[in-house]
Amino acid sequence: MIIYIHGFASSGQGAKATLFREYFSRQGVVFTAPSLSNVPSLAIDTLEQLIESYIKSHKGKVSLMGSSLGGFYSIYLSQKYNLRAVLINPSIFPYDTLSRVPSPMTNFYDGSSFEWREEHYEALREYEVADVNAENFMLLLQTGDESLDYRHAQEKFKEAELDIEEGGNHSYSDIERHFKKIEDFLTRD
Question: Cα 85 to the chain's mean position, in Å?
Fold first, then answer.
C-alpha cells in the first residue's frame, strides 16, 4: 500500500492526491490519501493506525509519499516503521515556517476555517528526526518553491536519492512526469 500524506491546510482530495490516486489505481497498486486533522498529534495518530492496521491485517508492504508538511510526517513515520518514502518539496523545519501562519487559517481544498495555535506548531518538534536512513528516501525538489527553501531538504538528505529541478513551485509543477520513477522507487524490493 502507498499512503500519500498531504501538506498543511490541504486534503486527501487535493490536486496531487487525485493525480496519484488515478495513476496508482490504473497500475493496480493499493493507494490511499487520507484527509488528516490539522492537529499534528491527531494526524500522526491516524497515520500510525493506518500503517499498523495494514501491516497486521494484510502482512503487506507500506510505502509513503509526502508533500510539504506531509513530507515531514513521512520522515518521522519512515524512520519509526522503516518504510520507503518519496518526499515532494518537504518541510524540514515546519515548526519555524508554520509559526508565521495567521490564525484562523483557511483549508486550501474545502475553504473551511481552523485555528492554528502555537501549541500546534510547537508539537511538530516531537516528530523531528535527527538522523535519517537515507536509503529509504527519494526527494523531488524544485528550486522555485516559494514557501520552502529546497536547500534544507537537500542538506538533510544529501545521501538520499535526490532529484532537484530548476524552477517550479511549492506544489511541484508537472509532478506527473515522475510517476513511473516514484512507483519504481516505492515498489522495488
Answer: 8
Question: CATH number of the domain that 125 lies in?
Answer: 3.40.50.1820
**Structural domain total, the chain:** 1
The span from the CA of 21 to the CA of 4, in Å, is 9
Residue numbers of the chain with a pLDDT score lower than 70: none
Count CB neighbours of 34 within 10 A: 16
* 69-89: pLDDT as tens digits: 999 999 999 999 999 999 999
How far from 104 is each of 94, 115, 166, CA to CA, in Å?
18, 5, 34
Q: What is the CA radius of gyration of the chain?
A: 15
Instruction: Provide the domain limits for residue 19.
Output: 2-187
pLDDT recorded at residue 112: 85
- What DSSP element (H or E) covers 106? strand 105-106
C-alpha cell at 53: 492496521
Grid cell digits, residue 126: 516531537
- The alpha helices in the chain, defined as continuous H runs, are 15-27, 40-58, 69-81, 94-97, 118-123, 150-156, 179-187
